[in-house]
Fold:
Amino acid sequence: MATKARRHIHKYHRVALSYTNVWACALSDCTHYMPNTLENLVIGKKSICWKCEQPFIFDIESMKLDKPICSNCRLNVPEDETDIPVSDVLLAHLNKAH
Structure:
């Protein structure tokens, strides 16, 4: 007797197959994938963000990443701790000139 598939929100990621790339669900109990000929069908679908783990709606910007993140995480990417503010760089340059 067949059982109904468990419904869940997929956690899409790009997977390289021998002949092409596909969008596949990364959850261990899911074998769902979207063939590359139908990959535009993932736009507008829910996915789980690889950064905050919250559901979001898949968009064109998400498709640019192998492990898509939501728009909130894309907009709130923390600056690298090694970055020096531009004002400090300019100040250091000006101090050397004098």
User: Anything to note?
Assistant: The chain has a mean pLDDT of 81.
